Amino acid sequence: MMRTLFLQAPSFDGFDGGAGARYQMRREIQSFWYPTWLAQPAALVEGSKLVDAPPHRLKFHDVAPEAVNRDLVVLHTSTPSFAVDVRTAEALKALKPSLKIGMIGAKVAVEPEASLKASPAIDFLARNEFDFTVKEVAEGRDFGRIAGLSWRNASGVIVHNEDRAVLENMDELPFVTPVYKRDLVIENYFSGYLKHPYISFYTGRGCKSRCTFCLWPQTIGGHRYRTRSVGHVIEELAWAQKAFPQVKEFFFDDDTLTDNLPRVEALAREIGKLGMVWSCNAKANVPRATLKVLKDNGLRLLLVGYESGNQKILHNIKKGMRVDVAKRFAKDCRELGIVTHGTFILGLPGETKETIEETIRFAIEINPHTIQISLAAPYPGTFLYKQALENHWLVDENADLLTARGTQVASLNYPHLSHTEIFRSVDHFYKRFYFRAPKIAAIAGEMVRSPETLRRRLREGVEFFRFLRERQQPAL
Fold first, then answer.
1. Radius of gyration of the chain (CA)
2. Residues 253-269: pLDDT tens digits?
3. Residue 185 vs residues 53, 199, 396: alpha-carbon distances, Å
């Protein structure tokens, strides 16, 4: 077995490469998600080590000594971080020319040829569902015989091996939480809407929804929701509960855990026996009866992708959601005492000044506890990206998705709505939602009741206002 380092490379300050909340970027308040996509193959490779640089505030000189003591380095990359990750690969190769360096992630899954051509420092890419592809590389197998691998042979010719079949028995994947215990400082991972410290991992992969903008199902996970058995998940939760007694909340990062109602109810009932607080991603169509089962068994919060309050836009992006259903869902959650964090996207196909206003009014009406507003991000590999190219919506086909500071830019421009107007609408949305007397009173009440919440909200407030100030600078 090759001595292997799994690396989330140093990047923008505050850059969330784990991207558990949709996109890789700096957020309005500092937020870090667990590097589960790296931890999963790391759990398969005996003697490996995982280094997640951004949340641990590590620079290149911090990670280089660990890398050069290894035979193999696997970097998780993304469209926004690719250029920086290539520079890291080149710098490591300069220090140790014999080091094998590979990349994983959606970026290289959809653009393997271009990614390998970007630098001779990249020896291989593990495409799509890459866990066992990386394991076979670490075992020293012949590159030509490893399914799912793109690589450069001895003559410098780029070779793309046959695709690897998707994993059907998800219980074959080992737990990721022992890797967290071994290699990560979990207190460095936090989110504005989750209790701290928290832990997140996946109970399945794939999402049956067909949202045109969503990166993971269209590039890696697929549209079939393949799940671990309830017993397998509970076994890991029980292990993690003992290993991390300080954890206050467990978050399931499946694209939509609630896609399979009988399974999520069965899972909830077993979690209830463990007596832990938990949360998950959800679509805004979960029946009240299921919500009650989840709430009665420890569910605290649902992260809900509302995206828009305009029905035509929801149809355009193939969300498969009705606004009236989402409103009823929000009402049910409120009445059952389930906290919601709502995510919205501005600049999707069909967006106008009027639909932005409609979405703001919708958000105020359903009133999630907290919100996140993103700009429509046409990532390569998504249907949205294909649409943008065909309709000439991209502001600049060669432009990055982020600014030099790591915050999102408005990449889409419509004849009736400019990218500048879309960009500025994010600030307007945040201010309209949060600068309301009832919302201010609710946040103030939280702070009064809990000194810990007081300290946290004050820190987040400073970060939030800094974020708004930075956005006043040019978007591109």
1. 22
2. 999 899 999 999 999 99
3. 11, 11, 39
Report the predicted TM-score, pTM, of the whole model to 2 decimal places.
Answer: 0.92
Is-contact 188 32, C-beta < 8 A?
yes
State how far the Cα of 472 lies from the Cα of 40, in Å rounded to an integer. Answer: 39
What is the CATH code for 170-470?
3.80.30.20
Q: Domain ranges in the chain?
A: 4-128+130-160, 170-470
Which element (helix H / strand E) includes 398? none
Question: For 274-318, where are the E strands, in sequence order?
Answer: 278-282, 299-307
**Residue 286 neighbours by CB under 8 Å, 6+ apart:** 258, 261, 294, 302, 329
Structure tokens at 206: 């794939």
Structure tokens at 315: 């149809």
- In one-letter notation, the amino acid at residue 294 is L
pLDDT, residue 467, reads 66
8 A C-beta contact, residue 52 and residue 8: yes
Task: With a cut of 60, say whether residue 474 has pLDDT above it.
Answer: no
Beta bridge partners of 34: none
CATH topology for 4-128+130-160? Rossmann fold (3.40.50)
